[in-house]
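User: Earlier you gave me the apo prediction for this protein. Now I'd like the version with NAP bound, so I can compare the two side by side. Same sequence as before, with the ligand SMILES added.
Assistant: Got it. Here's the input I'm using:
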Amino acid sequence: VTIAVLGTGAVGRTIASKLVELGHDVIMGSRTRDSDKAAEWVRTTDGRGAQGTFADAAGPADVVFNCTSGVGSLAAVELAGRDRLRRKILIDVSNPLDFSRGMPPSLTVCNTDSLGEQIQRALPETKVVKTLNTVNHLVMVDPLRIPGDHVIYVAGNDAGARAQVAGWLGDWFGWKPGSIIDLGDITAARGTEMVLPLWIRLMSTLGTPVFNFTIAR
Ligand SMILES: NC(=O)c1ccc[n+]([C@@H]2O[C@H](COP(=O)([O-])OP(=O)(O)OC[C@H]3O[C@@H](n4cnc5c(N)ncnc54)[C@H](OP(=O)(O)O)[C@@H]3O)[C@@H](O)[C@H]2O)c1
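And here is the structure of the complex with NAP:
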């Protein structure tokens, strides 16, 4: 599978490295074709990773990860291109965090809308699946780092795409089927994004970003 990872930050680099390790062709996308951060990542891949603009990455990809900053995500997917993303699954791990007024960040969208929905509206012919945004990037690709049962959510309008992404979460990253909760359509992204204020507070209370939630019933 050829996979585009839009984003050169810690999340993009962690996901891209894991996918290269699994033998996939990965293209990291950035606003610029010669991004230093992407180039630095490419050097770690023994020639198996490539870099380009968001559009260069999206064009040949079968699957696309959105790992861009929440405030830049709509611009990033527009640059990737509605046509180049048509009929593809876009796995959205972004959070709508606004750090412009310092810590803690506020949410740029919440309650009656979400960044996942905004991205889906911007890309009506793309199957947007929101997942992984509720855990640190180290946990995304290595859930066994945290002992015990802990959960990850998938949300998106296309049931087949949600099932496909749930399968990839297991095959690529090691999430157990029983720990993946299918929340249904993309409006569920409201809740999974609104968890972030609690998540950020917990990170400072617990003194680590490596934790996750478990659901008891
Ligand atoms: N850090 C975590 O563990 C974690 C966990 C869960 C979810 N998330 C979410 O994952 C996403 C990525 O986080 P991160 O810390 O790896 O990186 P980040 O610093 O939030 O984002 C970096 C990427 O966003 C792009 N970008 C920034 N502003 C942009 C704009 N105005 N237009 C278009 N693109 C723009 C950058 O493009 P250039 O390459 O051109 O600079 C870069 O590729 C965020 O939405 C974050 O909330 C993070």
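For your comparison, keep in mind: Residues 19 and 172 are 7 Å apart (CA to CA).
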